[in-house]
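User: My instructor asked us to take a sequence, write out its structure as tokens, and then describe one feature of it. I'm not sure where to start. Here is the sequence I was given:
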Amino acid sequence: MAKVQVGSHELHFERGGEGEPLLMIQGMSGTHVAWGEAFLAPLRESFDVIAFDNRGIGLSGPIDGPFTILEMAEDAAGLLDELGLESAHVVGISMGGMIAQDLALAHPERLRSLTLGCTYCGGPGSQLMPQESVEKLAAGMMSGDRDKAIRASYEVNLSPAFRSDEGRYAAFHEMATSVPAAKQTIELQVQAIFGHDTSGRLGEISTPTLIVHGTEDGVLPYPNGELIASLMPGARLETLEDVGHMFWWEQPERSAERIREHALAASGA
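Assistant: Let's start with the prediction itself. The structure tokens for your sequence are:
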């Protein structure tokens, strides 16, 4: 566990493994623990894995005002600077995928490869959270009952097939309660997401790119993955049938292997 000062923000990160650096960028409300050991452990066998908490979330320092996705991308670049890394493989999921898009556009020389998971680019054809999911999450949060809010998040983020095994909920609940996620920060993240639109510029990204999206995504529906792939001629779309938004949680070994293969191929390894 460590912290670095990036601009006016203190960012918490955890680092482990051996190999080329792999920077992991989490999504809305997500912290470093949301990756899960089942996903990170196999990645550490091939990479120097760096998982950090975005500004104002988890164990990173508090914030005092709104921000943009691009500003969070600059946080990621600043973290690489503080760690003495000229470049890294980058994995961004959900909001983290939006951050990774802006990072690739603003600092293409910093990325060795790019993986965009269950994310969104804005613009025509993009789809934010379905109304049914919005209402379920809102009901959970407005209930004032933390467990109801976590259960609602579980139902929205994971596929019906995965949730059919009730025994899987305990690990999700433990993850969701182990590290703080300030409600004010989450609200500011939502504002930042609404302002995100890289749709007209994705074709400028030349970094080798893998796009991963589950067909049962209840947060950012699967057509977002298809749209991003169509706007990035050199990218490859990996479709995960019957998998929900948190694909790395549902299929950690498969997800880690796809990312490993993609990153190593980009490096010529």
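For the description part of your assignment, you could build on this observation: DSSP finds eleven helices and eight strands in the chain. Try explaining in your own words what that tells you about the chain.
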